[in-house]
Amino acid sequence: MDPTITALLFYVVIWIGVYLAGKAIKAERFGFVLSPVYFMYKTTALNNWIGSLAEKRRGLWRALGNAGIATGIGLMAFAIYQLGMNLFNLLYHIEAATSIQPVLPLPGLTISWESFPYLILAISLVLATHELAHGIATRVDSVPLKSAGVFVAVILFGGFVEPDEEQLEKASHQTKLRVYAAGSFTNAALGLIVLVLFANFAATIAPFYTTNYAGVQVTGLIPGYPAEVAGIRSGDVIVRVNRMSVNTVADLQQAMSGLPPGTRVTVTTLRGDFQMVTRADPKNSSRGVMGVSPIRDLITYSGKYPLLPDNLPYPLLRMEFWISIVFLSVAIINMMPLYMFDGDRFLETMLKALGIARAKEIRMFASSVSLAILGLNFAMSILRFGFVKL
After folding, report:
1. Which of 45, 97, 133, 240 has the most CB atoms lying inside 10 A of its own CB?
2. For 209-303, which CATH superfamily applies?
3. Where are the domains of the chain?
4. How many CB atoms lie within 10 A of CB 104?
5. pLDDT tens digit string along 8-33?
6. Distance between CA 72 and CA 331 in Å, rounded?
7. Coil/strand/helix, residue 76
């Protein structure tokens, strides 16, 4: 049997065993909530911990909460504008459009098995930090929490907080705005920090690892172009063009610059040499190309200390990539004025704070428009690009 199927069956058996054991001992007495698809644990210890965090730096949390209000307004406007522009491009300028699709964690179908654990980790972290931020913002202004806890939903881990809605409704507009914006603000801030680390990965690991640029890896080929005709395959690593060494994509671009169509070149890969004649670039007829696209730097790492494994940076890099993508995506989408999203309650509170009449009608209109824009982006992205497997 396939090892993946075996692992999944083992997980299902353990899940069913835990569920049945919990029901047998009546685990609800100890704060557990058991369901066939999720397990939840509620405890006042988390309430107290969140309350102590809020009290220690109350002034700092309020300042961050106020920054979150401004950020929430910006995220809401940014989300609607970007999705609106992308929908326009999907309809009229497909070359400028981005495929926007819901990320469904279905390994082997919508996401590769290699990326699956990183996505699950990122989603679990975004849920935990999002709810923790709401909890701290709630307690900073002395609004009580009814419950807090952790959960496991099949494969997702996370935390939750449940504010006292009656007390929150009685709070000031500023308090409510801070609470509703807290989750997205925290996700956006953490996502940007991780994105900076990802973009400067070599620099951030420099104290521990040496980064080696070992060539340019071909990850795609343009059908009928010289590289494919000559026998280069996806996955090949280019290390030399004619007499020029190629260590990075920039080196390859420099080696090919100035070569007109019809130029004979020798491309050296780790599999051997390939002879080809350049062909005109469809975007610039005076420029010769071989037809390798997309390409990327082949990077290896060497630990500077004996106990550091050379392959450790690879999962760290993938983890940073997924965390930055998931955190920023959730921060932006969650602030859209959609029913059940934080952006909806944020907009409602903001309208009331400004004394704008017919707030209910404006809220319903904003939610309908947002749903239409988001849904059409999903639908048109799938029609234009097909389902994207990450």
Report:
1. 133
2. PDZ domain (2.30.42.10)
3. 3-36, 44-145+159-202+315-385, 209-303
4. 10
5. 677 778 878 888 888 888 888 877 88
6. 9
7. helix
